[in-house]
UniProtKB/TrEMBL annotation:
<keyword id="KW-0238">DNA-binding</keyword>
<dbReference type="Pfam" id="PF13305">
    <property type="entry name" value="TetR_C_33"/>
</dbReference>
<feature type="domain" description="HTH tetR-type">
    <location>
        <begin position="17"/>
        <end position="77"/>
    </location>
</feature>
<keyword id="KW-0805">Transcription regulation</keyword>
<protein>
    <submittedName>
        <fullName>DNA-binding transcriptional regulator, AcrR family</fullName>
    </submittedName>
</protein>
<keyword id="KW-0804">Transcription</keyword>
<dbReference type="InterPro" id="IPR009057">
    <property type="entry name" value="Homeodomain-like_sf"/>
</dbReference>
<feature type="DNA-binding region" description="H-T-H motif">
    <location>
        <begin position="40"/>
        <end position="59"/>
    </location>
</feature>
<dbReference type="InterPro" id="IPR036271">
    <property type="entry name" value="Tet_transcr_reg_TetR-rel_C_sf"/>
</dbReference>
<dbReference type="GO" id="GO:0003700">
    <property type="term" value="F:DNA-binding transcription factor activity"/>
</dbReference>
<dbReference type="InterPro" id="IPR050109">
    <property type="entry name" value="HTH-type_TetR-like_transc_reg"/>
</dbReference>
<dbReference type="Pfam" id="PF00440">
    <property type="entry name" value="TetR_N"/>
</dbReference>
<dbReference type="GO" id="GO:0000976">
    <property type="term" value="F:transcription cis-regulatory region binding"/>
</dbReference>
<dbReference type="InterPro" id="IPR001647">
    <property type="entry name" value="HTH_TetR"/>
</dbReference>
<dbReference type="InterPro" id="IPR025996">
    <property type="entry name" value="MT1864/Rv1816-like_C"/>
</dbReference>
Length: 214
């Protein structure tokens, strides 16, 4: 039956695997525009052009869809961090290289929050804790989650002699808390009105503080 009124035609069949991916992409776009609250099964099916009941073949309920979107958004955070690290110029000095890779982790994290606030909020909209983020769907191209990328960068500081081994345990929690706290203040808090130059400077100063603190 032809669609009327400019609506997308409804499809009740997809090639194997396509429907789940179509729904996930639709839900990611909803999250991009409105954060986790915008991820609703009916809206996702409408975006994908299928009847509402079709979603239940792949997602038991709204929470299942939101969990999958959170994982996919987390993977995008990781890929942005990886891209920031990949852009670091080569350095002959191992210490300088390790330091640059560590700073790139925080810079990429903050950049994603600024560029994709809806997806950033959704990435960290988790049911209780971060244990599910170890799944491959929350990882970037290297197979590592944002938290694992941070841990790897900290290990690099130890290897380069910039971080004492006895100060390494738990350092990721301190670094993550500081950068994530700034990200939230910049996108949802009293710092959201800062000029882009001030935003960038604030991020670099926080990373400076973390380096000194650890």
């Amino acid at each position: 039956m032809a669609a009327t009124g400019g609506e997308k035609p409804k499809r009740d069949t997809y090639r194997h695997g396509d429907l789940r991916n179509a729904l996930l992409e639709a839900a990611l776009e909803l999250a991009r525009q409105g954060g986790p609250e915008a991820v609703v099964l009916r809206a996702a099916t409408r975006q994908a052009g299928v009847v509402p009941n079709a979603a239940y073949r792949h997602f038991a309920d709204r929470d299942a869809l939101l969990h999958a979107v959170s994982q996919a958004a987390m993977a995008r955070v990781a890929r942005t961090m990886e891209a920031e690290q990949a852009a670091v110029p080569p350095a002959e000095d191992p210490a300088a290289a390790a330091r640059a890779r560590f700073r790139a982790v925080g810079t990429g994290y903050l950049r994603f929050a600024q560029e994709e606030p809806g997806l950033f909020r959704t990435a960290f909209h988790v049911p209780g804790d971060m244990t599910h983020a170890a799944a491959g769907t929350a990882a970037g191209a290297t197979g590592k989650t944002p938290f694992e990328l941070l841990g790897e960068a900290l290990d690099g500081l130890v290897d380069a002699g910039l971080l004492a081994e006895d100060r390494r345990p738990g350092a990721e929690f301190l670094a993550w808390s500081a950068v994530h706290g700034l990200a939230v203040l910049l996108i949802d808090g009293p710092l959201r009105g800062l000029h882009p130059t001030q935003t960038h400077d604030a991020g670099q100063h926080v990373i400076d503080m973390i380096e000194r603190g650890i």
